[in-house]
C-alpha cells in the first residue's frame, strides 16, 4: 500500500514538473526569438518646416522612406503621439515604403507664427514603425525652429516683383538668369518666419531649389524644378523652357541643414524685341 501511494504521488507530480520544464524552456526561447528581430532605421527620415515668405504662411512637412511597413507613428518631444498610420486590408499585405505629407498652411492672420511653433516644439521626434517582417523601425529626428532668411532673387538684374497681377518683372533679352545673394542668416522678422529664433543666428544652407511654372492653356501647366548645391546662387533658364511662352512664375527656396526651408515667389514676362 505504501509503495502504491508513493507511486501515485510521484505520478501526480509529473504534470507539475512537466509544466515547470515547459515554462523554463519558454523563458529561455522567447527572448532568443525576440533577439532575432532587428531594430533598424528608416533609409530617409526628415521632419521640417516650410515658410512661404511671400504669402506669409508656415507648414510642417515630413518625408519618410524605408523597407515596406504596415505601421508608423510619430511621437513629439513631449511624448505626444502626432501621427499614427495603420495599413489595412490588402495594402497591409503589400506594405508601404515611402510617405510624404505637408500640413495645412494658414496665413499668419489665421495662425500667428509663435502659436504655430508652440504646437511643434523643438527637440527630438521619434518615428516608429514595423516592417512586413515584423522588424521594428525607429529613427530619431531633431526638429529646430531655425528658419533661413528669405532669398532675394533678381531676374537679369531686376528685383523680384512684389505683385504679379500688376507689376511683373519685364525681361527684354535672353538668356534669362535668376540670381540671389547667398543666404547666411536665419529669418530676421520676429513676427514672420523668424518668430521661433530671435535674434537671427548664422545658418548653413544645405541646398537651394528653383521652380519655374508656365501655364499652357487651361488644362496643362509645365513645371521646371532644379536643386542646386549651397555654393551655387544662380540659375539660367534653358531656352527650351523659355520658348514655351512669355509669362512665367518662379520660386526660389533656401533649405537649411536641418531641412527647414524658406521660399519666395514672383514672376516675370518676356517682351523680346
Structure in words:
The chain has helices spanning 2-35, 89-94, 113-119, 239-242, and strands at 39-40, 44-52, 57-75, 81-86, 96-102, 123-131, 136-143, 154-155, 158-159, 169-171, 177-179, 205-216, 220-228, 234-236, 247-256, 261-270. With 273 residues, it is α+β, with helices and mostly antiparallel strands. Strands 1, 2, 3, 4, 5, 6, 7, 10, 12, 13, 15 and 16 form a twelve-stranded mixed sheet that branches. The protein is globular, with a radius of gyration of 29 Å. The N and C termini lie far apart (123 Å). Mean pLDDT is 88; it is low at 2-11 and 16-35.
Q: How do the helices and strands line up, and which of them pair or pack?
A:
Elements: H1 2-35, E1 39-40, E2 44-52, E3 57-75, E4 81-86, H2 89-94, E5 96-102, H3 113-119, E6 123-131, E7 136-143, E8 154-155, E9 158-159, E10 169-171, E11 177-179, E12 205-216, E13 220-228, E14 234-236, H4 239-242, E15 247-256, E16 261-270
Parallel strand pairs: 1-7, 2-16, 10-16
Antiparallel strand pairs: 2-3, 3-4, 3-5, 3-6, 6-7, 8-9, 8-11, 11-14, 12-13, 12-15, 15-16
Described by strand count, sense and barrel closure, the largest sheet is: 12 strands, mixed
What is the number of helical segments per DSSP (H or I, 4+ residues)? 4
* Low-pLDDT regions: 2-11, 16-35
Rg, rounded, reads: 29 Å
Strand portion: 35-45%
Would you tell me the structural class of the helices and strands?
A: alpha+beta
Shape label: globular
Number of strands: 16
Distance between the termini: 123 Å
Mean pLDDT figure: 88
Q: Which series of helices and strands comes N to C?
A: HEEEEHEHEEEEEEEEEHEE
